[in-house]
Amino acid sequence: xxxxxxxxxxxxxxxxxxxxxxxxxxxxxxxxxxxxxxxxxxxxxxxxxxxxxxxxxxxxxxxxxxxxxxxxxxxxxxxxxxxxxxxxxxxxxxxxxxxxxxxxxxxxxxxxxxxxxxxxxxxxxxxxxxxxxxxxxxxxxxxxxxxxxxxxxxxxxxxxxxxxxxxxxxxxxxxxxxxxxxxxxxxxxxxxxxxxxxxxxxxxxxxxxxxxxxxxxxxxxxxxxxxxxxxxxxxxxxxxxxxxxxxxxxxxxxxxxxxxxxxxxxxxxxxxxxxxxxxxxxxxxxxxxxxxxxxxxxxxxxxxxxxxxxxxxxxxxxxxxxxx
Amino acid sequence: xxxxxxxxxxxxxxxxxxxxxxxxxxxxxxxxxxxxxxxxxxxxxxxxxxxxxxxxxxxxxxxxxxxxxxxxxxxxxxxxxxxxxxxxxxxxxxxxxxxxxxxxxxxxxxxxxxxxxxxxxxxxxxxxxxxxxxxxxxxxxxxxxxxxxxxxxxxxxxxxxxxxxxxxxxxxxxxxxxxxxxxxxxxxxxxxxxxxxxxxxxxxxxxxxxxxxxxxxxxxxxxxxxxxxxxxxxxxxxxxxxxxxxxxxxxxxxxxxxxxxxxxxxxxxxxxxxxxxxxxxxxxxxxxxxxxxxxxxxxxxxxxxxxxxxxxxxxxxxxxxxxxxxxxxxxxxxxxxxxxxxxxxxxx
Amino acid sequence: xxxxxxxxxxxxxxxxxxxxxxxxxxxxxxxxxxxxxxxxxxxxxxxxxxxxxxxxxxxxxxxxxxxxxxxxxxxxxxxxxxxxxxxxxxxxxxxxxxxxxxxxxxxxxxxxxxxxxxxxxxxxxxxxxxxxxxxxxxxxxxxxxxxxxxxxxxxxxxxxxxxxxxxxxxxxxxxxxxxxxxxxxxxxxxxxxxxxxxxxxxxxxxxxxxxxxxxxxxxxxxxxxxxxxxxxxxxxxxxxxxxxxxxxxxxxxxxxxxxxxxxxxxxxxxxxxxxxxxxxxxxxxxxxxxxxxxxxxxxxxxxxxxxxxxxxxxxxxxxxxxxxxxxxxxxxxxxxxxxxxxxxxxxxxxxxxxxxxxxxxxxxxxxxxxxxxxxxxxxxxxxxxxxxxxxxxxxxxxxxxxxxxxxxxxxxxxxxxxxxxxxxxxxxxxxxxxxxxxxxxxxxxxxxxxxxxxxxxxxxxx
Lengths: 324, 348, 462
Known about the structure:
Chain B is α/β, with parallel strands linked by helices. Helices cover 42% and strands 10% of the residues of chain B. In chain B, strand 3, helix 7 and strand 4 form a beta-alpha-beta unit. With 462 residues, chain C is of the alpha+beta class. Helix content of chain C is 26%, strand content 23%. Chain C is built from eight helices and 19 strands. Chain C has helices at residues 96-115, 153-162, 180-188, 235-250, 263-280, 286-300, 346-361, 440-455, and strands spanning 7-10, 20-26, 33-34, 39-44, 49-53, 58-63, 70-72, 76-81, 120-123, 253-261, 306-309, 312-316, 321-323, 325-326, 333-334, 337-338, 375-378, 398-413, 419-434.
């Protein structure tokens, strides 16, 4: 057990998978010689060679489509999108081919697509997005959004091992900012099991990714005001741990979903709908959302700060609900 | 001025023997051509009888190209055939009754009723099921080749597309990537001159699609797609070249789509003269004539083959009609794969 | 209000579905001084008649809508000039913020009024009754938040599981709302649980219980004589028995019968029947016409929709129309209630009747469906009855018995003014009313209006 950054945990997890399973290979732009735009695969090419750590041309379609073909041929490809935003260029390969192949043709597509996502550092409209909900709507894709270093490592192993296309959203803002203990040995973290980040009794706060930390800070402040917040870190959105959410809501009777993605059609809407459908008689207040507004991610720091949900926004949202 | 090489026709039995086919193989090709057309003709009839739901597409005019390419593939090679390439499924050995069952949305079709018409493939035979977004299968074929290259296996992937699909970015990304990595892949363009109603000059501005190959760093070849033996010989060369590590080839098979885009399309936009001209170059008739001229193909042999095909088709339709509709309980089956699904020949 | 700017008075929105209001009376005239919140005018809307308090102090500078005029909600109907500024201020539109503020003030004022039961006018001093279901429901503000006594799903569930009357629980939530914590604390404190009320006819508050005979043991099952079979009364039968007896002991029942010529209704129904069935999936029955006509007449004769509560007459401005539904095999009777029937047109009422009747027969009614009725219609005419003396469902004032439609020769006036005999579809409507509150003339005038409504059915109005 050692203290590692979130980024190092992803890197370690990936390396261990490549060491134990020679079917695993990495492909993406600048992942080889350069070690990746964020250095997740630094040193990989030296260790595994150029045919397992493949520098690809600027071709997201060919990267994801190539992974699909290689997976059908028995490989366990891991594609890196340099930024999650660029996944739009590979939409067809993921949505049209990979997501539907098992259902219609019986062919499993075990690929992992790593997606450095999220904002908070003036990345602007094309380097800051959180496009998870678009893919959550596509049957056949799995979606992972780790928040802690330990989960980042366990979930990358599980993603690679999973027989389906898995979108692994790694939040760029956590890469070097978040450090925590990570087991040295190889392990997997199961999909569809939420993690209680903080126990509480008054309000259930459901979130994932970097917003777990925003929520935690808000919960600290709210505690001073006598509001006890239970934070659930979903860890994976498809599948998502409905039971854990409903269990918590049954306890607190009040729920708020927090996400960094924009509001309309965000995954929070799905969670809210499920709570109202399945825990209606446990509710003691409206189910609320705190999200980014419906706008592209702005560049200028004050605008971006106003865009991304801040601790104050969460405090205000939870308070409003607690006082209801 | 074409940049791609223009392939020669195959002159004699000796020529084709040199390319790897003996007389028995040639009779097999004839059978596969007749069976390919037979499946589509019988399917067309079933469609008009209301026994096949949805749309119905045929590859009439493309049988020679499909059968020629597939005949050149090795047993361990793989491919992503499209909707004009019924001949590939036939050559690889998909049972005709399962194709008819697929057409009819029955439980015994390769997709078990989850997908229709030619959106099917038997993975055990090295084929990958197409999607409607036609060029999307090229990156997948390239990915297969990438796996072979990583594992240093002497296997080749074949990716099909049409001249319409050549206009899309997937085609470019797939060829560029394959060229950059010198992957063992053969790109086959079924150029049947019409993408639904769009003629070639609205799809590309070069003389041939195969002219592009040079810009991706590999060879382009144009071949008469109605000449099954010429297609076979060029594909064989390209596949062996790829197998030896010398990278991709783009083969463009020139044909005419002899029917509408689908059977609901009367193709009125295609000049009549064009149909008349290409009707004289029917791939099955041409090959039959070649066999008669070069291989002493007797009427008895032909009758025997046609009789066998007819029986196969009669059986196929009966068996397909006996196949049940899918159980409603299968509606949600397989949206997600399970670990057991990975227990296939490819995932050992 | 220390403002130097003129303030608009706007037509307030008295309920979410209300779109316009009529000025019935200006209580101040142009030039009159007015205090903030002082009554300025009286308005009438679909839902309520009320006074509008002045949004600002000053002088009534301009009255823009006259008595009798109907204007859309939000229309400026007067301008209040600040004190001393009257006359000098031009009557043109004041700056935006003031307008918005005025609207907000008005809204607040009407909201405050909504907390007292505006929908029930209580005459004479009477202890304020506990209102379990304020109507209209408190309206949501922009945040989707509700003020006042909204009962959340979890509180409703806990209350029903523990038989707690939520109005007994002190609320600490926003606006005094009872939160989950409040009700759990209440239960933990050992507060008395309310007896779960039986589903059938609603209880009358303060109604005298059947005289108790404490020493008498529970009656044993009666022995069966020759040729007799004996079965115990069902809970519903017992409930009906008790309620009917109690109603006769409570109300001074009088029945009056009116003959109605349904020719016009028959013709209209023929015209609409197919369309209702095909486009709306609704069976258009004569009962729907009668219900619609009755609800309309109740609007003019509000005491038919009242109750006696102690020494007070409580008049309701909403009509919760009970429809008596017989259960199969004479097993009993249930009276589901169509809430706010005054809001429903013919289609709405037909649909509602079909819905409650269906749910009554398939036992899908929930307790709320059979509570809170303000007037009842019963329909034995379906079985051929031509006269009846129904018993009022307490604490209501009236019950209308709908008899069979029968083709009868009647004397009519022909086009030339001469008497003639014609065959007409005739129906008797028998109204039982509580003479304690309603006198014969009042009841007869009510019935006359029901009859007129049916005989001169105006398609456009319904």
